[in-house]
Amino acid sequence: MKLGRREFIKLSATATAVTAFGGLGFNLQPTVARAQLLRLNWAKETTSICCYCSVSCGLIVHTSLEGQGRAINIEGDPDNPISEGSLCAKGASLYQLTENENRMTKILYRAPYSNKWVEAPWDWALDRIAKKVKEARDETFTEKNDQGQVVNRTNGIAHIGSAALDNEECWYLQALMRSLGLVYIEHQARI
Predict the structure, then answer these.
(1) Is the pTM here over 0.70, yes or no?
(2) Are 113 and 184 in the same domain?
(3) What helix, strand, coil percent values describe the chain, rounded to 5?
């Protein structure tokens, strides 16, 4: 067998790679992700789903039985048929989303043409949202189209859903939006 210079270099590089990685236990077989369940006898386990995308990866949330019932640990649920205990980087960081001192817990309102935010009570904010929805619906409600057909719709309001909701919650929410006459209903998972 006659080896040229290029063939010799290719063969040498292959032999070097096999020798280098062969002794390290390098394996090209796919690995199986498994959650290591943390058993906390002094915490309550609750199953939930991840709020970041529409995949609905399963979670096990441990909450303390004493005090305020705060989250102690969040991990993947190995019994979930979708993710089988695996979580992406965002799902694995859910604990930081729930237990974060920088998380907004108060209503901040900025009046039109104002340059500063002021704290507002929850009751005031909910009443204002309801009032603005009613105003927009009343101003843009169409009972009949140009052909005289009954349409009962409003084009002045749109709604976008959240992937943090499960199917049943999404169904109830879109039923509420349709009962208001909304036509433009979308969901975050489709965008």
Answers:
(1) no
(2) yes
(3) 30, 25, 40
